[in-house]
Fold each of these.
Amino acid sequence: MPADEALSAFREFARATLLGHDAEFDSGAEPPLALYRPLHEQGLLNWWLPAEYGGAGLSLADSVDIVSELAYADAGSAFTLLISILGSSMVSLYGSPELKKEFLTAMTRDGGYAAALGSERDAGSELINLTTKLTRRGDDVVLTGEKMFSTNSGFADYLVVFAKSEGEGERAAGYHAVLVPRDTPGARVVKRWDMIGLRSAGTYQVSFTDCVVPAGNVLNGPGLKIIEVGLNSSRILIGAIALGVSRRIRDVCLDYAIRKPLAGHKLVENAVFASKLGQMEMQIEVMRNQCLAAARDYDDVMATPDPPAEFLRRGALRSSLTTKMFCGQTGWQIATVGSEMFGGLGYTTELPIAKYLRDIRAVTIVEAGDDVLRELVFRRFVLPPNRRI
Ligand SMILES: Cc1cc2nc3c(=O)[nH]c(=O)nc-3n(C[C@H](O)[C@H](O)[C@H](O)COP(=O)(O)OP(=O)(O)OC[C@H]3O[C@@H](n4cnc5c(N)ncnc54)[C@H](O)[C@@H]3O)c2cc1C
């Protein structure tokens, strides 16, 4: 399907199926996977998967407006639907041909999901501290450990788990990314977290006890670099969640101001209101342009002769890091202005603005907080090249 038709289909889906159900999505009920089934029927679930595995093969630049449309209607649904790109892109770039054929084809055929499991209690932003152990046993590897947060793990078909091989210390070669089918004995969901936002998504704590998978399920390459590469695409699309939620906030503010009486007029006629919405529009425009610029950087790497090697050489893309930071911070400013707009009602659960505020809060936290990203940007892109780490 051409990209513009796909975007129209997503817009239609988001408006017809998701929009207007804020309270249900915010209830904390189980992720509403059945609602997303029509996307699979149109060949659009996991829309980025390459055509050779039966996917729609849409680019990351195409994905920005898709995610923005989904998040406009429900940020938690957008998060559920986009986050499989993290696990599946790592498999697509660094999995063996057999692994890709089996698991990526199954995703497009059956409409499945993927999850990535890096964070642990003492290793979220700093994965070098992870303690999940990988041990080799004949032609297999065995995983033991506990992962603190991982979105989609409760229903994903496969999990991409980060682990350290015993005895290899902190050397980069000691870290591995391993594909674990979710129903593998020893892989167990401990609980689903009760998050304050993105409540239609599911983020889980998962444990691994003597969990055995074939050694061929280990992705090819250093695990810490593979996760850095994988995060390039998901960080950009998480930025696009802030974009979609910000567009929604702008629109609900406008609807409210048209109705709200103020000193014999309506709020919409007030110059201070106009200035606030003009500011929001500027911020939304720049967020979108930044998401698109970063997505094009990513697509440019994908168009090189050897994307896995080029990504390993470059690691985290500067534009991907700055997109998540910029969109998270800017979205939060918009949400703050938006929540004030409704006066006291904006601080109640009566209006959906409270949901948007909580949803957008996640953008600067997930996939490394801003303190960590600021330092990374400094070390990788600000220091003179001979001092970079
Ligand atoms: C909704 C949601 C979904 C998630 N989904 C997933 C998932 O699918 N897979 C997954 O692996 N993880 C997932 N996570 C985990 C998430 O990526 C981590 O929580 C995030 O990276 C932050 O890591 P942390 O929790 O260890 O906190 P930390 O990074 O340890 O932060 C705690 C505090 O320490 C400060 N800090 C940390 N490092 C530095 C530094 N270098 N300099 C200064 N201050 C610092 C931070 O600013 C903060 O104040 C999810 C989290 C949420 C909330």
Amino acid sequence: MTTLTRTSLLSITPPELFMTETIAKDFRVAIVGGGICGLVGAIGLVRAGIKVDIFEAASKYGEVGAGVGIGPNAVRVLREFGLLDDVESFSPEDPPSVRAFKFILGTGTHDMLYHYPTREDDLGLGVHRASFLDALVKFLDPSVTPTHFNKRCNQISRSNENPLRIILGFSDGTSHETDLVIGADGIRSSVRSMIIQDGSKAEMPTFTNTVAYRGLVSIEKLKLAGVKTELTPSPICWMGDSRHIITFPIKNDHVLNVVAFVTDFSIPMGHLTLPKGEPWVVPVSKEEVVNEYEDWGNDPLTILKSIEQPTKWSLHGLYPPLNSYVKGKVGLIGDAAHAMLPHMGAGAGQGIEDAYVMTRLLAHQQTKASNLEDVLQAYDRIRRPRANAVLLRSKACGDIYEGHGESGPSSRGRETDLQYLWEEVWHHDLDADIQVGIDWLRDEGVFV
Ligand SMILES: Cc1cc2nc3c(=O)[nH]c(=O)nc-3n(C[C@H](O)[C@H](O)[C@H](O)COP(=O)(O)OP(=O)(O)OC[C@H]3O[C@@H](n4cnc5c(N)ncnc54)[C@H](O)[C@@H]3O)c2cc1C
């Protein structure tokens, strides 16, 4: 673990949480899904001395080429895992920085309504997803922690020979026996569908009535095209009626990551569905994007016109949130547990927090094969309330940006609703949560 070099809430970690990391465990873990959350989880577990296999449906690691913002809460976790310095060195063009939103009107002359207040140590990351994943992959020695590619999990059952063990089945007909399964297989999680079978369809992600147009643009090109608004270093939320655009710089301020949202507020969320078989992500023409914003001001229109190959994402999420993230010895992390609207830039961060909490609980000196179900219950008790709260808050944030917040669409109304939006997301003490989980395990007689 690297030395802490900056002030961190996690620096108050009780030593008990970490003193166990070298104790050999009598169980193995299988992680289904090698996205950002699965890989952070794998690295954490391996560093805690736990044996891990990763099963990934794709033929190699890969991420769609877009930016992802990682908030100060998740940056602290990366640092605590000893990953931050290496992610930084792998991606030197995107060092951690204080990245508070500027809220600007999308129409007229783009008046600034509010600049979110930050603390000096509110360091966030804005990284290219593929670079981030590449940086993470380098931490896993394939001879110790193999990733099994082309393995799409489609079955989970108990072993007939040893009912304490779990069998994962894959679409190619092969199987794998393990002690604990972590479902990190994203928003369309098969693991989630297999463990939540209560007939409620709660495991199915809902269309959120919001589409997002995404793309990357050269900042130099935008300056040449006459964009006057300062696009760096702060991320910008351009606000309008039922629409908003998020822009933030990546690649050492050379590239602007653009996500332009359009929401249909005329129908309650959950009532609209995409036609069967329609893909959630499709390429679209530049004209389609620009038409949605034709009444907006010069700067956002110029940005949208400059996107070379825009894609349209029909945003889905787990609304309403799940009632449980675990069943038996199977637990969910990341989007599999709480796929949310991206309006707080907090989805991946919550998954990284899941990985941290899961790792610390599994690494505890008293965690063993015989009490894994209880330890997963502790994980669920800690993580579900927090991540589900962020999931609901993400929807509420989008409503504010698009003029549908509690205090209405006026500038003053939006400003009122924007106050301290990120406070609870960024400044949360995860180690205190973990201690609550450990205390619960003691109260239940699982830990002594
Ligand atoms: C428009 C948009 C903008 C966003 N912006 C941000 C942001 O700024 N900040 C932020 O924190 N978050 C953001 N998010 C959310 C963030 O992208 C996700 O929360 C995060 O990528 C989820 O990571 P994950 O590892 O849980 O899932 P994924 O990245 O989806 O990875 C899942 C992996 O599992 C594999 N898999 C799937 N099914 C199976 C199976 N059955 N068997 C084996 N493998 C399987 C997949 O191939 C994939 O590799 C945004 C999301 C969207 C849509």
